[in-house]
Amino acid sequence: MAETLKKGTRVTGAERDKLATELKKRYDSGESIRALAAATGRSYGFIHRILTESGVNLRGRGGATRGKKS
User: Fold this and answer.
1) Per-residue pLDDT for 20 more than 80?
2) What's the number of CA atoms in the CB half-sphere (13 Å) around residue 14?
3) Is the pTM higher than 0.90?
4) Residue 64 falls within a domain, yes or no?
5) Distance between CA atoms of 21 and 50, rounded to whole angstroms?
6) What range(s) does the Helix-turn-helix domain occupy (predicted)?
7) Is the Cβ–Cβ distance between 47 and 36 less than 8 Å?
8) Among 20, 22, 39, 62, which one is least packed by beta carbons within 10 Å?
9) Is residue 61 part of a domain?
């Protein structure tokens, strides 16, 4: 996404669909919501909402987990 969106501008219609497709592709390839927010100049909540609206299965928060000892 070469240009960043102006903070607070409404993104609707075809432009929103195009943005959702781009963000979904980048998220599925491993980029985090925070990284996407920084790259687009939008908030974490905006990116989260766009991804959930487009049907993305969001990843868990990660971090240390306690698994079975093998």
Assistant:
1) yes
2) 0
3) no
4) no
5) 9
6) 5-66
7) yes
8) 62
9) no
